[in-house]
Amino acid sequence: MKSNHIKSDPWKIIEDSFDPNKVEASESIFSLGNGAMGHRANFEEYYSGKTFQGSYAAGVYYPDKTRVGWWKNGYPEYFAKVLNAPNWIGIDVYYDNVKLDLNKVTIQKFLRTLDMRTGLYTRQVTLTTHEGLNLSIFATRFLALFQEELGCIKYSVKIHNVAANIKVCPYIDANIKNKDSNWDDQFWELKSQSIDENFAMLHTKTFKSEFDLCTYQGVSFYKNSIPSKEYSLEKSSGRISYVFEANLAPNEEVMVEKVGGYCSSLQQSQQKHKKHVKKIALESLSKGFDALLDLQKSNWDEIWEMADISIEDDIKAQQGIRFNIFQLNQTYTGKNPLLNIGPKGYTGEKYGGSTYWDTEAFCFPFYIATKNESVAENLLNYRYNHLQKAIENAVKLGFTGGAALFPMVTINGEECHNEWEITFEEIHRNAAIAHAIYAYERYTGKTTYVENKGIDVLVGISRFWSQRISFSKEKKKYVMLGVTGPNEYENNVNNNWYTNYAAKWCMEYTCKRLIQISKDKPKVHKTIQERLDLSNPEVIDWEEKASNIYLPYDKKNDIFLQQDGFLDKDLKKTLVIPSEERPINQHWSWDRILRSPYIKQADVLQGFYFFENHFSNEQLKNNFDFYEPYTVHESSLSPSIHAVLAASLERVDQAYDFYLQTSRLDLDDYNAEVHEGLHITSMAGTWLSIVKGFGGMRIKDNAIYFSPQLPKAWKSFSFKINFRGSIIELSVSKTNSLLILIKGNPVSAFLNEKQVIFNSKSDVK
Ligand code: BGC
Fold first, then answer.
1. Residue 65, strand partner residues
2. DSSP 631
């Protein structure tokens, strides 16, 4: 059921009332990030109500020992998690020596906004304490894009009716806990704490993984806008707090400007941390919050200039897509090849901040088209750099000869999840990784990435598939047993059509590229053969297997079968599920889910999405009409794929419904789980549903194609794409569609199947 708590606005996320039951949900929705760190929107001051404290430093994880009932060979040793890091945003407030607690006062006014245009978060609260003191808080903060270790807060307390003594105490605190912990281990060790006047820092180290993290703060205090150095210090183990105290008459205020954040050993060696962050803190304090905010604004301007999608006359749709684009940019900037995109980004603990197939299957197209090729290459290199680990992972499962199984969940290349049947058996992730390499090549037209690096990954993956399938004498075909497809509501099935088809495609693509390289660049081919110990017979074997894979098909319905035996199920459509039993994963036993026909997310249809030009429109229609009515869309990744496919079928109304579901999944809390964090990776799916769905963007034969359709509710929409270094803009209105070259050289482009002739910066209908 949808929630209407968040107000509609084209550029802002707004919450204009305080509901203690929505605090955790809003903490997710108002999260801030800058690619290197991220925070849930926890209040600065103390709050004794239900809250989920979360602050994360990118890439800093702990290997939490796996917890299973009965250990089996092949289980991963640990589940890696990006940890809840020491708190640097906290500011305690005392009035007449009573600690302010928003859970214990009467809130008169509450207004929280997140301005997506600038990344600025603000919160205004007016309240009355038990003792009858009226005061207001104004808190605003942002995480700097121009300096990844820096966050800035401006926080003021003003009293209204009677005189009072007010203390504001900005602090840093390393005494934090992860909600998600297998054994209740201590994750952090405090190494040292240091204080120099208005600068303080804590050095902590993760146990086992030994990441050093410096958490710091710098402060400037003001009484009625006049700077003051009259503050004191309180410290205890792992906690340093400054204390600024003032006796205020009505209408007087105290204010603190606080800068802070993290520097981890992934960014700088630990010996340099103090000097580095102290310089950042002191320089930032001397520039002041407002000047720093100007820098931040120009950074976001640059991002929006390229990445914005504007929609006229549909405010909810507009807010939805901007929220998604905003969060994707807060999560991953593409600067650091060690980092990736966790399904919850830096907004919660679920999924441990690790990398899933989501990156290649959903996020990759967004970053390649709205950033540039080097960002896309960083994403590919992340897996390339993990190839050896993927080979070791396959060895653990009994594969040989350089076969590579990339993990379903990873932070350092090792598989690190606790669930066997669901997660590990989703070996289809190997195909998504190969597909991203293919997508890169198709998008950029550059063959060198595959020749130099991508081919190593493709060969490892093909070796895996060729060993993972087995020959069925009965079917006289190669079959694949015991897998889980993208639909996680079926486990350990035989011949999941999607996985079989994707395996076939991977082997074919690898063979095709190897043959091409041998023709065009025999020397390069020879080095590849030597480097990978690859023989011609091995490649011929893949070709033979690929052409003989069993692809389950039902003649009567003319559909591919999701897996062997799917039609044995009691095929009742999702319409019969009572609404109070949705989502079924929160109401039904796992046993009931597994035997039901209900599909969590696109499975056969995921194959139609990836390989659409392999199938006719008729085939897409049959499969879509058969499977969608059994699909509960309980994965956030589901609606976007359905939106793109519905748009391919020219069902624009249906595509629009799916679009609203994906784009407002978190804002309207469709799956009643936003309190756990945002669905960051599925946000890239939202972008896909506009760009590939309504924009009809496709890349074919070194050209970019658009075949736009306008949802009825929209007056127009437009977006920009970086295609091969040129920026082009598509605008679609009720009367026409335009493709404009904004920057760069004319590229080969088609609008509604007609070639667009760009003169530099000209437009064509
Ligand atoms: C989905 C997976 C996805 C994971 C992380 C699960 O709910 O079923 O496909 O990889 O979430 O987003």
1. 78
2. B
Q: How distant, in Å, are the alpha carbons of 209, 570, 572, 603 from that of 635? A: 31, 22, 20, 11
Residue 255: which H helix or E strand, with range? strand 253-264
**For residue 426, which atom of ligand 1 is closest to its CA?**
9
Q: Residue 398: CB partners within 8 Å, gap ≥ 6?
A: none
Contacts of 676 (CB under 8 A, 6+ apart): 28, 52, 344, 348, 349, 350
Q: Is 357 in the pocket of ligand 1 (CB under 6 A)?
A: yes
Residue whose entry in the numeric block shows the structure tokens 């303080």: 200
Give the model's pLDDT for residue 81.
85
> pTM of the prediction?
0.96
Does residue 406 line the site of ligand 1, with CB under 6 A? no
| pLDDT tens, residue by residue, 447-458 | 999 999 999 999
For ligand 1, whether the C-beta of 377 sits within 6 Å is no
Residue with CA at minimum distance from ligand 1 atom 5: 343
CATH number (2.30.33.40, 1.50.10.10, 1.10.760.10, 1.10.10.10) of 373-597 reads 1.50.10.10
- Which residues, 6+ apart, have CB-to-CB distance to 435 below 8 Å? 360, 361, 502, 505, 610
Mutational test site, ligand 1, from 488, 498, 585, 640, max ligand atoms within 8 Å of CB: 488
Work out the average pLDDT over 670-692: 95
Helix H or strand E segment including 152: strand 151-159
Given a cut of 50, is residue 763 above it in pLDDT?
no
Partners of 243 in beta bridges: 232
Kindly report, residue by residue over 727-750, the tens digit of the pLDDT: 999 999 999 999 999 999 999 999
Domain ranges of the chain: 31-303, 373-597, 695-765
Q: Which atom of ligand 1 is nearest to the CA of 408?
A: 10
SS3 of residue 14 by DSSP: strand
CATH superfamily label, 31-303 = Glycoside hydrolase, family 65, N-terminal domain (2.70.98.40)
The CATH number of 695-765 is: 2.60.420.10
pLDDT bin (cut points 50, 70, 90) of residue 762 is very low
Catalytic positions: 488
What is the Cα–Cα distance from 414 to 391, expressed in whole angstroms? 10
Candidate from 79, 355, 358 with most ligand 1 atoms within 8 A of CB, to mutate: 358
